[in-house]
Amino acid sequence: MSIDNLQGIILAAGKTKRFKTGTTKLVSKICGQEIILFPIKLLDLLAIPITTVVGYQQELVVSAINSKRNSNAKPITFVTQPEQLGTADALACTRNNWNKDHILVINGDIPLAHEHIITALYEEHIKTDATISFVMAHNSDPASKNYSRVVQQEDNKIDIVHTKDLGSDWCQHCYVNAEIYITKKSFLEQYLQEIKHDNSRKELCTGKLVNLASKNNLTVTTTIAPFDQIRGTNTLQELWAAEQIKRGQIIRSWMEKGVRFTGAQHVHIDLDVTIGTGSLIGCGVNLLSGTRIGKNCTIGSFCSLTQATVGDNTTIHPSCVLRNCTIGSQVSVGPLAHIHGNAQINDNATIGSFVEIKENRTQKNQAEKQTSLTDEILFTPSTRTHTIDSDMLGG
């Protein structure tokens, strides 16, 4: 459906205290992509103009967005939150940038949200002429105490209350707030400044907008999404859980395209990797950073390929490491080989085990043929490692 008259606000200014890494979580990667890029690309997909609130380590967040985002996408407006005082305060920092009648607000650490969540929320929001609409998800896991809960009062009023503020009664409220909202701009202009500190975290929270709308008998609409699709990443455990889900989605997608896995639960594939139909990926394989695998290839167990290109009908035997290299078609690379440094292996070559092949760094600016192996070169297996500069092989 067409989404008109909607502006997106992505909240990406938080301090990431619970990660305890000293670095903003928004540049942590899930399957090779920074967390902040997931909501950015989601809104780009829906052609929703974006304003992003940055604050803590903002230079890292802005750099990640600008360096990885599609260059054809509409420019993003960045707004700085000088002091991290909560999501409602971050939203207030964007007040001078509101230029649509309806405002979508979403946190920057929700990497699994699907476009249908946004379109369904927008459709319901417009259909019901709601003042504010938000997404909720069922979750009764006692470990999920980093989320706010949707509390239905006896008078049919709705409150958003953080789990820690509910005490032992939290388990009676099985829906969590996904912190994805669409609200009328006019409502924000009138009520946003009324949000006060009233929770254990001493922050101004956007969830209180729902409470204010309900209290003033304004229309509040909800939609329901699967919890896995609205998961946040507030801790390293939650980051791990989100990456497992995304990893499973990627592998299922490749299975549907004709790629077989011998131990799918132990394979890691980045989002920007491509694999040809008919290929077999062994247990414990890592395919990273734009690696491209041709058709009908076999990648043996415990291989690691980073920015590598592998031609059709090629076999990479177990425990090989390939980095920044090009392997031709119908090549056989023996176990425990290490090929890197922009080395190129021609079609039909056979590489033995325990071999290291790399670009001759002293010659790297000379003719390209010096970094290419000639056809049908055989390195016999050995129990010793051989380091070979590709220009030593002729061309």
Considering the chains and any ligands shown, give keywords for the structure:
9 helices; 21% helix; 27% strand; 11-stranded parallel sheet; disordered C terminus; 2 domains; alpha/beta; single chain; 28 strands; 395 residues; 7-stranded mixed sheet; UDP N-Acetylglucosamine Acyltransferase, domain 1; Spore Coat Polysaccharide Biosynthesis Protein SpsA, Chain A
What features would you describe in this structure?
- The longest helix has 21 residues, at 236-256.
- This protein is elongated.
- Strands 13, 14, 16, 17, 19, 21, 23, 24, 26, 27 and 28 form an 11-stranded parallel beta sheet that branches. A 7-stranded mixed beta sheet has the order 5-4-1-6-10-7-11. Strands 12-15-18-20-22-25 form a 6-stranded parallel beta sheet, covered by helices on one side.
- It folds into 2 domains: 6-235, Spore Coat Polysaccharide Biosynthesis Protein SpsA, Chain A (Alpha-Beta Complex); 257-393, UDP N-Acetylglucosamine Acyltransferase, domain 1, CATH 2.160.10.
- The model is unreliable at 360-387 and 390-395 (pLDDT under 50).
- The chain has 9 helices and 28 strands.
- It has helices at 37-45, 58-68, 87-92, 115-127, 163-166, 185-191, 208-215, 227-230, 236-256, and strands spanning 6-12, 29-30, 33-34, 50-54, 77-80, 102-107, 132-138, 148-152, 158-162, 175-184, 220-224, 260-261, 268-269, 274-275, 280-281, 286-288, 292-293, 298-299, 304-310, 315-316, 321-327, 332-333, 338-339, 344-345, 350-351, 355-358, 372-373, 386-389.
- With 395 residues, the protein is of the alpha/beta class.
- It starts with 5 loop residues before the first strand and ends in a 6-residue tail after the last strand.
